[in-house]
Fold this sequence. Notes:
- The protein is an alpha/beta fold and 481 residues long.
- Helices cover 35% and strands 21% of the residues.
- The strands form five sheets. A seven-stranded parallel sheet has the order 3-2-1-4-5-6-11, sandwiched between helices. Strands 14-19-18-17-16-15 form a six-stranded antiparallel sheet, covered by helices on one side.
- Helix 8 (239-249) crosses helix 9.
- It starts with a strand and ends in a 5-residue tail after the last helix.
Amino acid sequence: MKVLLAGANGYIGTRLIPVLLEKGHEVVCLVRDKRRFHEQSDFGNKVTLITGDLLREQSIETFPEDIDAAYYLVHSMSQAADFAALEALSAYNFVHTLDKTHCRQTIFLSGITNDDNLSKHLESRRHVEDVLKEGKSALTVLRAAIIIGSGSASFEIIRDLTEKLPIMTVPRWVKTRCQPIGIRDVLGYLESVMLNEKSFNKTFDIGGPDILSFKDMMLIYAKVRKLKRHIFIIPFLSPKISSYWLYFVTSTSYTLAQSLVDSMKNETIMRDHSIDDVVERKCISYEEALNLAFVKIEQNSIVSSWKDALNQGYLHSGFMDQIKVPQNGTLEYKVKMPFERESQDVFTNFMSIGGNRGWYYWDWIWNIRGFLDKLFGGVGSRRGRTSSINIGPGDVIDFWRVLLADKQNKRLLLYAEMKLPGEAWLEFKIIERNGKKNLSQVATFRPNGLWGRLYWYAMWPFHLFIFNGMAKEIIHYGEGV
């Protein structure tokens, strides 16, 4: 079967591709930027890529006419005032383009929306379902609650809270019940309903066997990790305070924290179990899903992470255009340091930067900078990195975004996502000429007006120590081990 996948770079889409390929399907991926897909995916040569921005219909390449089924896995957690209209426009443009093919079925992964008073984001999901129903192909909607898997937003937030806080004073929404489901089961359902005529033009709730509150999930996580945790509920915390609490304690952005708190007022529990008549599947428990996630983390084999999604969700995709660092109107701090050891060792060291490895020199300064960034509404440094050994374009490293991870030319280019009065890039590269080897480390800053320039010169004394010390440690880290 020929399958179209919209949202191929997303958390679910990235994991669905190998499932479809293993079943022998021909996969066509709709992406905004082929460069990012090729760099971060092992399937670049196994799938067909077509490009298009779903918010600009004229940019979408023609879909192959012989498409049999299509997955629409595009979501946004933006808090922009018009995010619902943009999500609807994206779905409309997708359907309008898909209607020119012979596609028989469209499959959409939505959220459980059984409450009457829905959050804005769950309302938007419901509206997207209505837009997709207008298409010519039969629509199958799978509605899931919290998805548990290595790299999923829900798992990482539960992990952040439980690992960091032995004693928690928490908002009352931790008593809200939901029905978590493992990522393995979500993928199983997505694949099983494809071209299954019993699922045509139907909507199904999907969930695991456990109905738990958020408090229950944190305590079970603590039990699995052999941690002793105490949770006390403070009922008078407002949604805004709750959002700030979640934002400062976890690696989530404030925008995502707002969206999550807004949605946590709704119970997400299966009321309809008709999926059992269509797909015979025994879902794993919440605890089993946690254990599987830890196996992936320990093996450094996390396939995708919510943290690698762009800050503005799918509505912004121009970060890859920053690969060529600007030369005009910029300020630079350059370090060029010779070394004698194997180039591959030094390359491995700077490719492992950030996350648990840290920044090699004066980590406490980087931590303070991350805290200040959080304080002013930035992403902070708690996002870490998805894998400690593998990175590619689009991945996050603390408050940086990977633009280029070039193994052949031994070059790493990062773009700053912290709050700055300008734009910043950090580049590491190994230069080998005339039998000599040097580590080149360049910090580039494009200031935004006078305040940007004042910021750069105020930071210059710190750069003098930090960047020289970091280059030296990158060269010598692991020597003699």
